[in-house]
Amino acid sequence: MSHVSGFVRKMSASLSDVVQYQLPLGDQKLALNPLIGANIRLEFLQEIRCVACDRKTNKSFNQGYCYPCFRSLAQCDSCIMSPHKCHFEAGTCREPDWGQTNCMIDHYVYLANTSGLKVGITRYTQIPTRWIDQGATQALPIARVSSRYLSGVLEVELAKTTADKTAWQAMLKGPPEPLDLEAQRARLLSEYASTIEDLQSRFGLQSMHLLLDTTTVNITFPITEYPDKVKALNLDKDPVVEGRLVGIKGQYRILDTGVLNLHKYGGYRLAMDY
Prior knowledge:
- The protein is α+β, with helices and mostly antiparallel strands.
- Helices cover about 20% and strands about 30% of the residues.
- The strands form three sheets. Strands 1-14-5-11-12-13 form a six-stranded antiparallel sheet, with no helix packed on it.
- The model has no long low-confidence stretch (mean pLDDT about 95).
């Protein structure tokens, strides 16, 4: 067997006929698709370093940060999960320069098919990464807006009748039924036409562009079999995880012994044998 160890980071993924995954572990980027079908062993080596400042920490916050960074960095603020609560304009952003670069730029509002139809938002630089991370088998941008805040405001409105969360267990049990996302776009934009007009009047016509001609992106994940029952593996409770890798979807490794959300363990020092 081969052996590699180091501090882990979020899996990177690229869109192809089948999504291609790489695992940054230490100074290596390990291609994971060739390991589908192989037995692997992961061990948590009881050391965590913050993904932002490299400080040693006994506990990870927000998928890899030490507590001081969790409390001080803009990317860890609550408005990242709730963009409609952005407080940049109030002058209270934790890091105004970071906010200017990452939030006060074009964002997309999209529809995706994960465990069913959902609405979401992402920076324009994160397409299609965001869709892959969510385990979407289909995705369709429906609007381009001028800031993260505005994308959040529109998402909140659309979420009144369309889910904005993924049921991760259902997502991992199998592919969802295909959806006509373009028909769903037409329905939602018609249903919320007056709301959208109000937002354009409030923020300016140039702040929100409806995307009427985009086509659905289809995404295929490297999976040979889905679990009958989704059992979440936890490296904090059981530092050794072993099993046959049968697939990868979103940020989850699917083993024949359970599923492991690797994104949760950013900054953990892991050893992997395969």
